[in-house]
Amino acid sequence: QVQLVESGGGSVQTGGSLRLSCRASANTYLMYRMGWFRQAPGNKREGVAAIDRSGSTTYADSMKGRFTISEDNAKNSLYLQMNSLKPEDTAMYYCAAEPLWNGGSWYEVGAYSYWGQGTQVTVSS
Q1: Is there a contact between 77 and 22 (Cβ–Cβ < 8 Å)?
Q2: Pseudo-torsion of CA 96, 78, 63, 54, nearest 10°?
Q3: What are the pLDDT tens digits along the chain (125 aa)?
Q4: Which residues, listed in sequence order, are joined to residue 36 by a DSSP beta bridge?
């Protein structure tokens, strides 16, 4: 079992920034892939960004240029730097991890075995 604990959410105004953190109970360098997802009320959970074992990163189109995913294996932590935030970024943000390649795409919920409890991000206009 891998436990993931997110932190760093909060309330900001449009154009503001937040940095989310995710602390893992296992060595993150052992993970095949780690990612960030978000879910707004009434919406499906959607992929935000992911980073794989090689350090390659992928982003959803609406986040490119505004969000940056990174990890610090020495701290077993995953981060999401969010800049130029918009009201439509308001959601619960979740950290996810998958230790093995399972054929799933980075943006698929089913591609990850472990999830955090989420941290709320609210962007006001």
Answers
A1: yes
A2: -90
A3: 899 999 999 999 999 999 999 999 999 989 999 999 999 999 999 999 999 999 999 999 999 999 999 999 999 999 999 999 999 999 999 999 999 988 899 999 999 999 999 999 999 99
A4: 49, 95
Residue found by looking up tokens 């780690």 in the block: 34
Instruction: Report the relative pairing of strands 119-124 and 10-13 from DSSP bridges.
Output: parallel
User: What SS3 class is residue 52?
Assistant: strand
Residue count (the chain): 125
CA 79-76-35 angle, to 5 degrees, is: 45
In the numeric block, which tokens belong to residue 33?
């892939």
- Per-residue burial over 26-53, b = 16 or more CB atoms within 10 Å of its CB, e = otherwise: eebeebbbbbbbbeeeeeebebbbbbbe
CA dist 112 and 58 (Å) reads 15
CA distances to 3, 54, 61, 111, 114 from 100, rounded to whole Å, are 16, 13, 25, 9, 11
